[in-house]
Amino acid sequence: MELAGFGHCGRTRAGRACYGRRVVDQSGTAADVRARLGGSALGVAPWLLGAQLSHTGDDGGVTVRISEVEAYLGPDDPGSHAFRGKTARNATMFGPAGHLYVYFTYGMHYCANIVCGSEGWATGLLLRAGEITEGVDLARVRRSHPATDLDLARGPARLAQALGLDRAADGADVLAHPFRLALPDTPPTDIARGPRVGVSGIAGTAQYPWRFWLPGDPTVSRYRPGKRPAARSVDP
């Protein structure tokens, strides 16, 4: 796996605190984890399957075991928010690995990504689904008591809501309080991959099999194709 610089927590924004305390997790020091996150999102994706992401807010803490992610590769990826360059919305994607890129979508939902690669690369992994392993009662309240606990974090908007994430978390370091990211000692050997969910055009086809999930895991979201690529006219 390609490795890059470790980066640091050196940015602050309104409504968010950037903390300096580091943690040690299953796979070594925070520097070890950030080094793993410093590769291409395609190489990092297996490491996040089975990883535990925790967030402690004013109302308590929630931990999710990640079961599904999608890779986005910046200017090399027509499905990426960074495909056309840096904007105020996607600026965090161009920062160091190990930070959250949180965006607002459809006028009602937040979704969270973990930035990968080296600074300026704009590659990352969308957290699509997972299982709540700690703070289940709080996640139920945040999610307005869904029918089953399997639905607490099944889908990227649900996952962000269960963790209590909004735009105030954009740019936050997942390796510093109030977050914690614990990677597995080794990535799982049984991994499924295929087209990304709901991505329009060619970037949502089998030519971009950049969705990764744990096969058979009941928290994995349902596949939904995006709009098909426009048909090309052919001169007779």
Instruction: Spell out the CATH superfamily.
Output: Methylpurine-DNA glycosylase (MPG)
Percent strand? 25-35%
- Let me know the largest β-sheet: 8 strands, antiparallel
Ends distance: 48 Å
How many strand units?
Answer: 10
CATH topology: 3-methyladenine DNA Glycosylase, Chain A
Number of domains: 1
What is the CATH architecture term?
Roll
Low-confidence stretches: 1-26, 232-236
SSE pattern, N- to C-terminal: EEHHEEEEEHHEEE
Work out the radius of gyration: 17 Å
Helix content: 10-25%
The number of helical segments is 4
Shape: globular
Mean pLDDT: 85
Structural class: alpha+beta
CATH class assignment: Alpha Beta
Which key phrases capture this entry?
236 residues, alpha+beta, 3-methyladenine DNA Glycosylase, Chain A, eight-stranded antiparallel beta sheet, two-stranded antiparallel ribbon, 4 helices, 13% helix, disordered N terminus, disordered C terminus
Give structural notes.
The chain is of the alpha+beta class and 236 residues long. The protein has one domain (28-213): 3-methyladenine DNA Glycosylase, Chain A, CATH 3.10.300.10. 13% of the residues lie in helices and 25% in strands. It has four helices and ten strands. The termini are far apart.
